[in-house]
Amino acid sequence: MAEVTITAGDGGTFSAYLASPATGSGPGIVVIQEIFGINKVMRDIADGWAALGYMAICPDLFWRQEPGIQLTDQSQAEWDRAFELYQGFDEAKGAEDLGATLAHLRGLGECTGKIGSVGFCLGGKLAYLMATRTDTDCNVGYYGVGIENALDEAANIKAPLLLHIAEKDQFCPPEAQAKVHGALDAYGQVTIHDYTGVDHAFARTGGEHYDKTAADLANQRTADFFDDNLKS
Fold first, then answer.
1. Which of 169, 199, 209, 211 is the catalytic position?
2. Which domain holds residue 76?
3. pTM value > 0.90
4. CATH at residue 21
5. Is residue 32 classed exposed, middle or buried when 0-12, 13-18 and 19+ CB atoms within 10 A define those classes?
6. Per-residue confidence band for 92, with pLDDT thresholds at 50, 70 and 90
7. Does residue 169 have an active-site annotation?
8. What is the pLDDT of residues 182-220, one digit of tens each?
């Protein structure tokens, strides 16, 4: 596992956590952060994908505000700082940085070709934007926040997209969920799974709303989705 440096489209540089499989090579996955930065949760997720044979890279998307931020969900002060960073986040620039990350991963000799993305919370929305703005081979969003505000981009989806929606998501209320379903259910490339009775971040291990049953189901669906679209 290593930290690598990526050059942004506007000339700056930012870091990313790169996890490699034991074989040394494999298809790629861009892991997209929550609002807490590249913390242990994100690194563990990248390591998990590496253990399954993928080159997994997790870029620091808050670098324009504070490089190297690592927060947890265990204190109010950290939550407050996380929301400050979220409010100050330039989504368009973040999407461009993900495009630069995708290009970096493609340029590594250890990456065998196909690349997908998986994002959580803020990253769930950005995974949707990866589907509409890049040529990734597939994308997965967990409880994305704000997808309903970018549904005008849905026609750009050309590769498989998998979305996990928490029924009781406090940051994606029923009306927002209805808009997402209403706009995307008709797209053959999009699969949406709803998880009854669970709240936002149900798959964040150790988090307040962690639900093992729902998390295990979502994670297995994601693993199967990546196997089908990146390894075949």
1. 169
2. 2-230
3. yes
4. 3.40.50.1820
5. buried
6. very high
7. yes
8. 999 999 999 999 999 999 999 999 989 999 999 999 999
